């Protein structure tokens, strides 16, 4: 199946789960979808088009909202599913029930953007230190690194 | 009785510490849990405050072994954002360095596998021959580890006729040596028996857990970015995707040896068909707003960079997913119901950028008494177990 046929199938059979879909580059398809239907959409893509390999989940801080991109690949191309969550209500559903390999990427999203992944099987922090202050999310655009004052062990 | 075992996280000599906490029932691992982030360097945040050119050298330093993978993945992504068509000769040289890096990485891995399986002379042999590839890379780029070969629009250095001849001559030596390893490994039943049946990962598990690279291909899934989503000049090069069906560490070794042979063919093809012309074209400094999802087949598997530009000379967002991270969920599945003595072998088989299990604390769960095992003791346990291989496994032949 080439990317054009894949796009046609998506537009024909998954109309109710997506907002829009288009070819963005050779072998790349972009889908915009509402976050509510995300697990069903991914389950359908996996079953109907064989898009079982999740490359990664990228989060982007757009200011007013967060954009979350799910990069799914098969042997013919890559489909990027794009959902948005407003900053006031940063919640997205977990896709681990469909793609078990997504767990580390979802935990990373929670750490770095403060997005709440609902129904995640394992919500512990992944990358940040155990004593990382609560409510600080390093990859948000308004977060800047402030170097802590140097303390010499054992006094002067 | 159940034990909790902590593996890692620190080792001064290696650059990627990780901690694994395991629940053991006797010698069998019942559950495993990973703790990452001991050396999180914040590269993604840092990249947002550096220009596209500066990020070339930042992405290169993500990894010490597959440095060229990250740099190329980033470079070809930015070239797409710039709508730049790189020079053909530059692309050939870039692909050449990609494959040389794959050869040095797989030779390194073969040595590590030999060492973890208690075949230490194999380790000495492959690492000696890895030096040959490192020398080639040194001739081409001037560096052994961070080659700094890529630039937007091509590469930074050309190859002259003398270098081309010299590499082709040296390649013959490497081919001979690889044939020798094949015979050596195939005729050594303890080595094959030690690898067979260890670290099982079924085809379905590998797909569900989104494993990549040789780990996935050894479970019978022929996914290779070079074929599925060709970048650079891979659509012009004849080569085969290497797979194995045994779903264990032996399969992962077979896939890597097959890939070595394919890589020699690719290198030969590239050098014999090197086009004339310029090796780089001029690139703009600013990039208009756009985004790109760049994929690359690193020696360890699919490497992914997502780059978003905002019209300035700095990226808005750079997301990096290294192949080892994608293989962690699969590693947990491989460890479960395996033996504690197989940990070094299973971990080495995903070819992680970490091998830092120098220290291992074995804690008695009930009474709180502890005992520290050195990695050498763990390896001695592994070798002890290798001697007790049942004789049915000795019949297993090297699948070539």
CATH H-level homologous superfamily name of the largest domain in chain B: Cytochrome-c3 Hydrogenase, chain B
CATH-scheme architecture of the largest domain in chain B: Orthogonal Bundle
What is the CATH superfamily classification of chain A?
NADH:ubiquinone oxidoreductase Nqo5 subunit
Rounded average pLDDT of chain A: 91
What is the count of β-strands of chain A? 7
Q: DSSP helix count of chain B?
A: 14
CATH topology of the largest domain in chain B: Cytochrome-c3 Hydrogenase, chain B
Indicate the proportion of strand residues of chain B: 15-25%
Helical content of chain A, roughly? 10-25%
Q: Class of chain A in CATH?
A: Alpha Beta
Q: How many E strands of chain B? A: 10
Between the first and last Cα atoms of chain A, what is the distance in angstroms? 69 Å
Taken from the alpha-carbon principal axes, the silhouette of chain B is globular
Identify the quaternary structure here. Answer: heterodimer
In total, how many domains does the architecture of chain A comprise?
1
Query: Which series of helices and strands of chain A comes N to C?
Result: HEEHEEEEHE
